[in-house]
Amino acid sequence: MPVGSAGTRLVPVAAALETVLRAVRPLGIERVAITDALGRIIARDVIATRDLPPWDNSSVDGYAVVAADLGGATSERPVALTVGEEIAAGRMPEHKVAPGTAARIMTGAPMPVGADAVVMVEDTTPEGDRVLIRTSVERDEAVRARGQDVRAGAVVIPAGRRARAAEIGMLASLGCAAVAVGRRPRVGILATGDELADLGEAERPDRIFNVNSYAIAAQVAEAGGTAQLLGIARDRPDDLRDHLRRLDGLDVLIVCGGVSVGKFDFVKDVLTDLGMTMDFWRVAMKPGSPMAFGSIRERPVFGLPGNPVSSMVTFEVFVRPALLRMAGATELGRPVATAELTESIHKARGKTHFVRGRLAREGEHTLVTPTGSQDSGILTSMVRADGLIVLAQDVEGVERGRQVEVRLLQGDARD
């Protein structure tokens, strides 16, 4: 196992993630209106209670016919059929279509008994109570069969899937006004550091604005959780203790900063004094090596690095999958692309590197380019990125032109 600069054993990324996921469980189930279900995790299989469509229907505006009546029909020799009725969408047919007859039908309207095809209106000419049809059709042409989309009894949305617009539409098509979803994790976010000023405070030459609380809160929301900002704790053990005692109502605690080995990095010791069971501290990754994980009173606690990029990357790698599992998701990862590297990347063995990159298409090739300086304080490297180039712990640099794995920063693994 790699060793850090302070002699601490570095936990490999995969082992650290396994530890995190082993420590978290789904939080429970609640029912919400489908208008509030977007982005939520479906908690129980959604089973169709009806066929969709519920009856054979027309996919075009035209005439419902018996296909055998139209053999040989052309523009020069149209076939004349008697029109028995007009069927609008939302109205059930009243008459059977017998050979030699037709029914005017609109898109989505139920097919009348006896008809087995639909002729597009563009291929017809009305003539009193008859219609002249200038083309032949095949049986079932322009007909959407009952149950073509969904059969009653089928699982149409499996439990564990995040609800997108498509899932909301499917729920509505089945008449579901509400759906069972996993409860959202409630996440407290505490920033630490004497150098921090919160938004709205006057600028000072010795302060920087509190980036992490707001960036991490946005990541929490994107992962399906709800964020509660706990403010800024100063670099004093007593102030940290005061802030860290406010855990009521939270499912997860995230502390940003103070987990390294600096003179004023007290978070690890204060958390331990408050009863935290520490599962690991320091991970074999870059950026984000000084990252801690454990629990206080059965609540998962993440200690993320203070540099904004390190904090966001460690959230992406460890916290996001944990929040998804707590909400009941089965897919915890991100979509992964394979791309050709446009620049060589130099690295030493011993740590997994997450290099911020930008994807592009060039003909049939997918390319990825690092987003400039990869220093953990360069937030523009994240702003420009749409993926993380993952370089394995035992890799020693990658040359330009090689294929690399890129973990996308949007979407779920199944998207």
Keywords:
single chain; 415 residues; alpha/beta; Molybdenum Cofactor Biosythetic Enzyme, Chain A; Molybdopterin biosynthesis moea protein, domain 2; Molybdopterin biosynthesis moeA protein, domain 3; 4 domains; 6-stranded mixed beta sheet; 26 strands; elongated
- Our count of domains comes out at 4
Biggest sheet details? 6 strands, mixed
In round numbers, the mean pLDDT is 93
Morphology call: elongated
Pairing-aware structural class of the strands and helices?
alpha/beta
Largest sheet: spatial strand order? 7-4-6-5-9-8
- Compute the CA-based radius of gyration: 30 Å
Task: Spell out the blueprint of helices and strands.
Elements: H1 13-23, E1 29-33, E2 46-47, E3 57-58, E4 62-65, E5 79-87, E6 101-105, E7 117-120, E8 124-127, E9 130-133, E10 143-144, E11 155-157, H2 165-173, E12 178-182, E13 186-192, E14 196-197, E15 208-209, H3 212-222, E16 226-233, H4 237-244, E17 252-256, H5 267-273, E18 277-281, E19 285-286, E20 292-296, E21 299-304, H6 308-326, E22 336-341, E23 352-362, E24 365-370, H7 380-383, E25 387-391, E26 403-408
Parallel strand pairs: 5-6, 13-16, 13-17, 14-15, 17-21, 19-23, 22-24
Antiparallel strand pairs: 1-12, 2-11, 3-10, 4-6, 4-7, 5-9, 8-9, 18-20, 20-21, 22-26, 23-24, 23-25, 25-26
